[in-house]
Amino acid sequence: MLTPVTPTIRSRPVYAPLEPRPGRLHLMVADGEGADALIELLAKANNRSEILSSAHVIYAPGPNGTDRSDVLKALGLRQFFRAPTIPALLPRLVRVLADAHMGTQFYLAGTEGLIGQAEREIMATGFPMGAIQKEHRGSTVRRVQCVHCKGITENVATDPFKCSHCGLNLFVRDHYSRRIAAFQGVNIDAEDPGQVPEPVVRFK
Amino acid sequence: MSLDFKPGAFDFFRDETFRESFTYRNSNPLRFPFPFDRDDYMYSVNMEPHVPGRKGTAFEHILDVDEHYVAEMIDRAKVLADDPLRCQSLPHMTLAGWDLLELIMEAKARDYPQWFSLTKNGNRWHWVNRPLGIEQSFTFLDESTLPYGPFEYITRQTQGDFSLQDERDNDLWMDAGMITSQADWSLDFDIGMSFMEWHAPVPLAHEKGVFDRALKFLLKLQHGAPVRRFNWTMTVNPLLDTAPETYPKWGPTKTTLTQENLGAKQHLRVELQSLYRLPRSNAIAFDIRCYLCSFEQIVTVPKWARRLHRVVRDLPDELAAYKGFLRNRPAMVEWLSKYDDGAPTSPGWWPDD
Amino acid sequence: MSGGAKLRVRVDSVTPVNDLIKRFRFVALDGSDLPAFSGGAHTVVEMDDHGTRRLNPYSLMSSPADRSAYEISVRRDDQGRGGSLFMHRHVTPGMEMTLSYPVNLFPLDTRARKHLMIAGGIGITPFLAQIAQLDQFGGRFELHYAARSRVLGAYMDRLTAAHPSQVHCYFDEENQAIDLSRLLATQPIGTHLYVCGPKGMINWVLSSAEAMGWPRLALHHEEFLAPGTGLPFEVQLAASGKTITVGTTQSLLEAMEAAGVDAPYLCRGGACGQCETNVHKCDGKILHRDHWLSPEEHAANAKIMPCVSRFEGKTLVIDR
Ligand code: HEM
Ligand code: FES
């Protein structure tokens, strides 16, 4: 099922279940449980075999270790690629985009880190952001940018957390930047140095 | 840090600082654009035509150049030297940058001929900025003839933060900005966002439909018919650069207020915001001009003293929290109450003559 | 002020382009530079047609870099309400006229990797300015331009001379048609498509592209609606307390203006949304002809766009 989000700040992305749309190439980028969203998408399609024969899936295991490569491979896709991690997956996506044509449908599924970073590469071509389908599945850990040092901490689970670059104690805002593909982290004890609340696990 | 201009003329322009020693002052508080036209405040689509207004006020010209000009430009140069990410322009915004450069140079040369001049010979332009000691010949629309991109070049010489919004898909996208005197928001984080996305953190206004109506209005903004609005917040010390980036540095000053120092330290921060449709790029320029005035200077105007007390006292908690002064509100109200005798105030923001 | 800022201009020249099209060149009355504009912008030309005020939008076709003059091309429409006929028959060099400041409802998306332009007939005019803009600032484009015949293919010569490999012309008379499915299948990702021309062509291009998986956000079109003619009808203006009759060749907006009611507008072609007006009471049928309101809003009959829409029925009360 689509991971429900209750946005407190309206820049926080919201997601919708993937829907089959007409296209000559179906480019699907997913990680972890995102594989299930692709499988459900195909199950919904009344032209399943047509989509399969023009589908290119680029996949990485999730941050929690979920790896559904075998299931995806068995679907009979035109092209399948498994990368060990998201950073290893992105160059492949960039290469595919370099000679993709209009008429390509984009489907992104999985963690927000994967969705955000893939979306950023697609938008860089001038393709309209509003036409990229996105479904959040699986882990809710966040990619957070420290607004002070600009370093990005991956897989943030607690709030507050310690910036992995500058060491400041940051609270996690729902304010989200597509350009950076990250949420915003702001120093929690700036006004009262040292008064840092106990971290709670907010993202799993 | 070395400046790439030579400020000289401190006869009219004050030699003052917005950091460390904080020597910033207003010679004439009556020039301050007091933003409250009534005794309470709530967000609204408060926009009016940006036309030249009363002589001797911040409204006399569309781009106000005041006694703080040179000091503000020195402050901006320092901020940029520390953090160049405060000025960014996405690649497709260069033409909008030229549009803004033209708008500013033409307005300044027209309204302040004693300080600025612009001579054109076709696309060969010659610009003189006497207060900053700058003289520049360049080719309009040719980036290679300026020391910075057109947007950065002109906004390093203009008071006020600026952002440039590209219009696409019935929305506005903040795709360039020179942001060094902001009320706690990050250009580096917000650049590339849509109107609703960059306004996302604002409380209450979305629910009231303020942003829906404001966006609809702006999408129809026409070249030649700029508009303006006010925004305001509170700042401890006359600090222009209250950026989230440096919050750990300036945040602690919020805890230093006492009844004795509050009048001098606490400043009302007013943003006179103006919006222009740019002709060649079809983008919209947003000028966020920041004015600071200490509480002790504001209360020299009796009407403003009464009104500021009432506005601060009655502001909804959500707004006081968002504007970052919830913790200091009781102290501010206590201090201001001494200047409010309960007498009625006249409508409008002008002081009673 | 309704309609926004205005420009006083003098007609500098009138040039016949072919049997149907004339080109008009305007310079500022005081000889100064005109405001710069962006490719795709239009201006609303005000005409005093022997006592009848007509305001028609026309795309600016001159180079946006040239501030010495504006140029528009007007196709004569013998069946129309008379604006184009007035331009053709009565506008002569030396005449003084009023134009609106340029407004752009058909801008290029400057982030696009490539611009694919499709024009039909007089729909070529916004592309002339856009191509001039791309020429100056760079940007990859390709133009496919269809006209009825070689004689009616306005500006084809200058376009093909300047951009031999980017401009492709087609003539109905010679049974040539744009190979749309090939064209739509071969564009690099990040291409934006722009179409301007007759309604049938716009619909054909947009629906084909969508069927081939092009996102709507990458598809741009411009079509100015003429207000059209219709049966006369009566309208009550609640705010000004007047009741007016809209004539056969008049728009509701024009009828309000003739009655001295200052109503907002920009494009006068159902595209910009500026004239949107609340309906207090509607006993009958609003003939919605705008592109602005959504189908749901059209069905609700709570809003009307007076620049193009009309009414049939007993009572219409609007908030003006
Ligand atoms: C297109 C130009 C505009 C830009 C670039 C802009 C930008 C911003 C930004 C960056 C913020 C701070 C948000 C944060 O907390 O992170 C803000 C706040 C706000 N904006 Fe805008 N804005 C624009 C136009 C408008 C307009 C036309 C309105 C009219 C209603 C408006 C109303 C507000 C309000 C009410 C706030 C909250 C301010 C406060 O309480 O301190 N903005 N704006
Ligand atoms: S005036 Fe533009 S829609 Fe009516």
Explain what you see.
The complex is a heterotrimer of chains A (about 200), B (about 350) and C (about 325). Chain A has helices spanning about 35-45, 50, 70-75, 85-100, 110-125; strands at about 25-30, 55-60, 80, 105-110, 135, 140-145, 150-155, 160, 160, 170-175, 180-185, 200. Chain A has about 200 residues and is α/β, with parallel strands linked by helices. By secondary structure, chain B is of the alpha+beta class. Chain B contains twelve helices and ten strands. The longest helix of chain B has 18 residues, at about 95-110. The radius of gyration of chain B is 20 Å and the shape is globular. Chain C contains seven helices and 17 strands. The longest helix of chain C has 13 residues, at about 125-135. Chains in contact: A-B, A-C, B-C. The structure holds protoporphyrin IX containing FE and FE2/S2 (inorganic) cluster. The site of FE2/S2 (inorganic) cluster has 14 residues of chain C, from loops.
Content of β-strand of chain C: 25-35%
Structural class of chain B: alpha+beta
> Radius of gyration of chain B, rounded?
20 Å
Shape of chain B: globular
The general outline of chain C is: globular
Number of domains of chain C: 3
Top CATH class of the largest domain in chain C: Alpha Beta
Q: Please, how many helices of chain B?
A: 12
The profile of the biggest β sheet of chain C is: 7 strands, antiparallel
Q: Could you spell the SSE succession of chain C in H and E letters?
A: EEEEEHEEEHEHEHEHEEEHEHEE
Helix content of chain C: 10-25%
Strands side by side in the biggest sheet of chain B: 1-8-9-10-6-7-2
Number of strands of chain C: 17
- Largest interface, chains and sizes: A-B, 26 and 26 residues
Helix fraction bin of chain B: 25-40%
Oligomer state equals heterotrimer
